[in-house]
Structures are given as C-alpha cells and as structure tokens.
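Field: COMPLEX_INPUT
Field: COMPONENT_COUNT = two
Field: RESIDUE_TOTAL = 790
Field: MODE = joint
Values follow.
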Amino acid sequence: MIANDLLHFGLDEYRERLRRVWSSMESRGIDVLLLTDPCNLYYTTGYDAWSFYVPQCVLIERGSDRPVWIGREMDMQGAKLTTYLEPQDIDSYSDDFVQAADRHPMSRVAELIRARGWGRARIGVELGSYYFSARAMDVLRAELPDAQWLDASLLVNWVRVVKSPTEIRYMREAAQIVQGAMTTAIERTRPGVRQCDVAGAIYQALIGGTREFGGQYASSPPLMPTDERVNTPHLSWTDQPYRPGSVTNFELVASRHRYHMPLGRSISLGQPSPATATLERALIDGIDEVLASLRPGMRASEVESLWQKAASRHGVRKRARCGYSIGIAYPPTFGEQTISLRPNDETELVPGMTLHLMPGVWQQGASLVITEPFLVTESGCEPFCRLPRKLFLAE
Amino acid sequence: MIANDLLHFGLDEYRERLRRVWSSMESRGIDVLLLTDPCNLYYTTGYDAWSFYVPQCVLIERGSDRPVWIGREMDMQGAKLTTYLEPQDIDSYSDDFVQAADRHPMSRVAELIRARGWGRARIGVELGSYYFSARAMDVLRAELPDAQWLDASLLVNWVRVVKSPTEIRYMREAAQIVQGAMTTAIERTRPGVRQCDVAGAIYQALIGGTREFGGQYASSPPLMPTDERVNTPHLSWTDQPYRPGSVTNFELVASRHRYHMPLGRSISLGQPSPATATLERALIDGIDEVLASLRPGMRASEVESLWQKAASRHGVRKRARCGYSIGIAYPPTFGEQTISLRPNDETELVPGMTLHLMPGVWQQGASLVITEPFLVTESGCEPFCRLPRKLFLAE
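Field: COMPLEX_OUTPUT
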C-alpha cells in the first residue's frame, strides 16, 4: 500500500477493511472478489472518479492486501491519484473497447484474471449491483468457462454497515451541510419564486458547504415535488413559481468525501389542511418514539413497529419501509441496500450503524416528508441533524 | 394515449417514435421489447422520475401503441403523472420486493409478461444498459424458460439519434443554460476562491437557467480538475482554493427536459506554458476544421480524421474518441452510446443528428478541454453554443 495524501483514511483503516472483506469471502467460499459497485471500489481502495459509466472493477484476492484496479485507459491516472494501489496493480482496456458493438471491456478483465492464475477460481461477483450489466456477466461466463461464479452482491455493503470514528466524522460534516441546505430551502420557498431558483440555491448550499469544508456531488438530486406533483415521490422541480397554499416535500442529501447525509422536511405556503396537520403529528410522534426507545440489540423490524405503533394512534400507516442504512454513495441511490426498517428485517442494530428514519407518507389529500438520520450509540441513538421536526410554514 | 399537459411532446410525436421502434423490432425479429434504460422509458412514454435505482421497465409489443409500465408501487403515481399511458397499463410490485434478499422485482415482471400472453414470445432486452443487472436477467431467464431472449441493447438509442424540431429546440435551450454556467465559471475562478464555491455557483447557473426557463438535474456533475488533478479526466472539485498559475478543465452539462448539452473550456490562472499554448492551437484548429468541413453524408470516422489531421500539424494526437452523439440523458452519462467519432465508426451523419465534438487531451505537462456540441444540418453543421473557443485567462 502506498501512502497518499489524497486518501481520506489512513492505510490502517484500509487494511482493516480488507481483513473484514476477506473474512466474509472466506465464509462464503470465495477466492477472488470482482467488485463493480463504485461505492465498494471507493471503500476498499479509495478510488473516486466519475468513470463508472464505463465498466471498471477491483479484484480482491483473499488474503492479499494488493487489490487490482481495471478500468478505461484514460482513468488509470485517476486510479493512481486517488488510491493506495501499486502502479503495477492498475491495469486498463484501451479506448476502442468503450461502447463498442463488437467487443466488451469484460473480455480484457477476463484476460487479466487468467493471467493472474484465477481462471479456475471461485469468483464472487456483484450480480445485483449497479453498473454491472447482464452483458458484462455473459461475457465473463463465456470467456472464463472454468471459473466458478458465486453471487457476492452486497458482500462489501454489509462490511460497510458499522462505521468507524472517521466515517462518523465525515457523516457529521455532511449533516452540517445538509442542514444548511434545508435552511436555505425554508428561507427561499415563497409564493412567486420559481422552483428552479430555489433548487439552484439548494445546490449552491450543498456544494459550497460551510466555511470550514465543502460538499461533493451527491448520489441524488434534491427531490422537491409541489402542487399536483406533491403526492408523488421521486420527482424534482419545474421552472414554475411556487403557488400560495401549496405544500412542498424537500428531500435533500449532502455528500462529504462520498459519505451521504439525507434530510427531509415539508414546507407549507399557508395554513395546512386538517389532514396534513394530522399527518404531521403522526410523523413526528413516530420519530420521537423511535429516537427515545431505540436501543442497540433491537432488530430493524422492531424499530419499524415502534414507528408504526406511534403513527397508528393518528390513523396513519406507512406501506413502504420507513428507513434504511446510509453511508458511502454514488448515483443512483444513497441507500446502502443492506438494512431496511420493515417487517421481517431481523438485522440486529449495533453501535456505529447509521440509518435514515424516513417516514415520508404520500397519499391523496395529504403528503409530508419529515425524516431524521441517526447514529446507533452504546446507549440508544443520536440524530445527526438539529433542525426542528415540524411542517415549516411560510406565506 | 391520454393527452397530458405535463408531457413535453405531442402525442403525434410519441406515435411516430413508437412506429420507428416497431420497425426496428421487426427488422430484428422482436415481438416484445423490455426497456430498462431510463432514457428509453422517457423517450417512448414520457416517464420521468428519479426512481431508476429500483428495477422498472416499459414493455412495448410490436404494433401496439399501448406500452406497459412496471415499477415500484409508490412510483405508479409518477407514471400516471408524467406519461400518456392508460391507468390499466401501469402496473407495479409491492415494496417488500425492494432491495430484498429473498425476492426480485423481475419475478413480478415475469408474471405480468405471462399474464399478457408473452411467455413464449421473442423478447428483446437491453443486456448492456444501465440499471438492468445481471441478477435481473438471471431471474427473467429462470422464470420465463419458454421465452426467446434477444439482445436489444441500444435499439431505442439508435432510433433516438436523429432529432425532431422540438428536441432540437430543447437542446438549444440547454445550450443557453450551459453557456451561462460556463460564463459563471470563467468569471468566478480566481486564485484564493475555493473550488467548491465555484462549483456551487456553476450548479446554481445550471439549475436556475435563464429568465425564460430553468434547468434540470443533469446526468453528470461538473467535472473541473485542477492542480495535480488536471491531468486526469473524470475528477470533480475539492474544497481547496484555486492556486495562481493553475489550469482547470471545466466540463459542464445542462439539462432541459432531459435533453443534455455539454460544453468544455479550460481556464488558466496566469500565462500558460508553451506546451499548453501549442495544445490550445491544436484543439482549436481541429474544431475549426471539423465545423468548416463537415457535410451530411460523411462518416463518423471521417470527422475524426478531419480533427486528427488538423491537430497533428501541431504534433497532437488524441488516443480516445473525439466525440459522440448526445440527446436525452440520465445518470451516469450524457453520451447516447451510439455514434462515436473514432476510426472504424462508419455511421453516416445525417441532418438532425447532434454530437459533442470533445477533443479533450490529458497528458503530462499539458492538458486542455475545449469542446463544441453541434447539430448536423442540410448543408453542414452548426454549433449549439456561442462562447469563444480558446483557453480563458484570468489572474
């Protein structure tokens, strides 16, 4: 491992990560792990670039602290710059493999796997991950017929669920940034102001960050549906002005060294309807109940039922999961894809886990998003943000 | 088809798109097309939401103007809101399929394919597309053993390469936005200013847009490496201040109704080195040559050699492709993945095609990015932007 000032963690932390990855590989009978999820490339090697739109991977042999990076030729320099890898462990395919009809970069990866003597190995692949296409897998299967393929989807994601002190520090910094951006949204959302101008100001706050540190591009844009779009999750802004009486659900997320911190709040331009006011109380009571009652050792499903029980006293029930694990992210999601706060998820919560309690409810007549990201501690849990939990009002 | 004020194109244009898709399906012997690329969902149905982080698809039966959308239950409302689809053609899987270890949304898609009588059909799938995982394909193969699978990667992308007048209008609007954002970059990049603050101002310009219309989230963040990172493509900003004497390569992209317009310029904080000045002349001569000499009927490879020939007079040669087709985009790329300006791409350029001439060169000692997106016209080509082609200087 080569020391590198641009790494955001010490070499010891990377070594410890590799040890935990090897241990998980061993328990699944995996000799070599072929990682394609950009979050897992970043976590294991530090590699950080907007290059995941072309195939790239990191290969980890169990027991070796010299992972191999393979990507596009022009991205090798980025791999040298952002990782601890030795130059001879950084390999590439030439540019004529990029988006070509007659060849695929995974052929070159297969060649390198054979050259390293792993052609008959038990190779773990992230079958369910982003940026690993069905075609990529077909090429690997065809060109390495003697390899044994094991599904290692989420193997590294599960190694990532308990955060180190440095990781938690970056998440606290991201929390400061996202809280500042939400404050901007609350200050700027007024009747007659164009939605795109509020979105622009939010981006500026998310990227400019604080006086001490800046933000990075996040996995997801601000989601901020309003008017007839407010009952729909996953929509963003338009260039129309905000209308008096409208409600807007802001879901923002900040990134600090790729550690993501989401936060959701709703803003009403005028007095909310009785249905909205009831929903507000339900959401807040649910969050208060979770933050007060959560203890390490509880299961994810128990946390969900804490929330549902408190909300049900107001006649509210959420059909979708009400939270999930968070940490490193690249587009298209800041969810870690591991723990979900929902029935049947029996994961035991332990100190150092970081989750987003996300009881957004969308239903005809009323929809609100009030959320709270939190850290599981030795004695309970601690929210990352300090913004009042309420429906914000403006005129 | 249901008329919908939120659609950005008339129903006639969607009908014409479907006709062209059916024709391509017929020539490949495809009965039913299963689309997963969010660009192709948007192009064929209007569907537009940040929901592609979970599996979703559009099914098109050849000859039917009633595509079927299948996604997550909470996103059905978004499908109703943003498309022309009939409510009975919008279907979903429940939330317990989301990121679950024991089930996969494609099982539900397979069930719906059987229910529609397509269980033995010749089904085209986008094997190489983003957001269609190897696991998703494995599930489909296992659950629809009597279907015949054909690779339909890029089928719709190729239908998209020639733009309609409305598409070109949106691209011209995106060009106005990206030019404004680049002007912001040129005005704000000064020694001592933090990179993240310039990035924040760029985002505000990209999203706030012009007085007449706003921008949308783009497929890619601003890329703007500087200092020791300048020789590396695909890196973004840090929170460090700009240094006197440094060069920064700005690659920005704006989105208007998901039509993307990229633009690249470099900014030097001080007099450039002789090597940089030579590179500048090579890039500009190459662009001038292409814009002056390009004629419809030329092949993509000929355009590349026009550029290389002009640049080679300054001793410069670009190893990677020097451009590609552009249009609709979602993360992670604004390239259409069809035409590449490189040797062996024999695509004939015809009026209505839109490309990004992207002769960025990264090499030790000098690296610059000066790019020009353009439209192929009846008589030649026309750049979308009107920003001087040069290395901008500031002190």
